[in-house]
Amino acid sequence: MVGATRFFLIAIALLVVLAACNGAQDEQSTAAAEPAPAQTDTATSDAASDGGPEELNGILATKDLGVGDNRVSFLLTSSRALIKAPSATVTSVNLSAPDSVVETSTAEFFLWPFGSRGNYVTDLTFDQPGEWRLDVEVTQEDGSPGKAQIMLNIAERSHTPTAGDTPPSDGNKTVRDVESLAELTTSSRPDADLYQQTIAEALGGEQPLVLVFASPALCTSPTCGPQVETVEELKDQYKDQAGFIHVEVYENPAEIQGDLDRARYSPLVEEWGLSAQTGYLNESWVFIFDAGGKLTSKYQGYASIDELTKGLDAVL
């Protein structure tokens, strides 16, 4: 009996020790399973702490700006990502005028093809040349406020044709001048409809004209190829109501074969003032003309199908 009691007491002691060990392991497992404290973004934290908006980076996409009405395009980025909020408020500031605030407008966001980037677009009027600034305010996708400042240099007149002008209309080649479309464009899938007319023929045809300058395969930005494709999409919708022409930025696309050292600009690139911009390489431009041959809209850099549709509808 004494032996049985002794055995019972030893068993109880072992159970107590095992329970203590299991308890310690459970505590360690719980501690390991708990997530580490979340890391707070510095910029967001600073903005939230003082109640002010986050400082964003504004990137101007339209450099050829002159006195008068202008389409102004820009991108906004934070320390984390591109800003894709639907709209932003833009205030133009004339830095040389006593009453500096000139105009406030809403800039609409347009997503580029492939959905990774996009730009804000608004229309602004500059009444004198010189240094200007855009003050941009936006509510970011997470609900926090953001702001940016973008510096502008407004010329007396832009390098490229402006609204009301009748630009040079000679010089672009058509399918009648070449043996293959490879001599007219760097596009890997060219649309022959865009190379049927000269600019002069289209402007004299009593229909509006949509004209795109771009190098689909050799552009230094990600939007030239998509810009030509966007014009093709517009053409399919308005084929019997307007003319559509693509002018390759380079005169000798078939000879380049990926080596830009052999490239020569089309004479029209210089005649239209595209290459007069500082740092110009081969970015895209779209021009829309009314049925009388007068320029009504121009788009530096990528213009979405919605923008181009609006511009074309205005002259139909």
Based on the model shown, name its key terms.
single chain, 316 residues, alpha+beta, Immunoglobulin-like, Glutaredoxin, eight-stranded mixed β-sheet, four-stranded mixed β-sheet, disordered N terminus
The N- and C-terminal alpha carbons lie at a distance of: 111 Å
SSE succession: HHEEEEEEEEHEHEHHEEH
Task: Estimate the strand proportion.
Answer: 25-35%
Proportion in helices: 25-40%
**Helical segment tally?**
7
Global geometry: globular
Give the beta-strand count: 12
Multimer state: single chain
Major β-sheet profile: 8 strands, mixed
Strand order of the largest sheet: 1-8-7-4-5-6-3-2
The chain-level structural class is alpha+beta
CATH topology of the largest domain: Glutaredoxin
Q: Any guess at the CATH architecture of the largest domain?
A: 3-Layer(aba) Sandwich
Rg of Cα set: 31 Å
Q: What would the average pLDDT be, to the nearest integer?
A: 84
What is the top-level CATH class of the largest domain?
Answer: Alpha Beta
Overall domain count = 2
CATH homologous superfamily title of the largest domain? Glutaredoxin
In the predicted model, the low-confidence regions spanning at least 5 consecutive residues are 1-49
Question: What order do the helices and strands come in, and which of them pair?
Answer:
Blueprint: H1 2-33, H2 42-50, E1 54-55, E2 57-60, E3 68-77, E4 87-94, E5 101-111, E6 118-126, E7 130-139, E8 145-154, H3 199-203, E9 209-214, H4 224-238, E10 243-248, H5 253-256, H6 267-271, E11 285-289, E12 295-300, H7 305-313
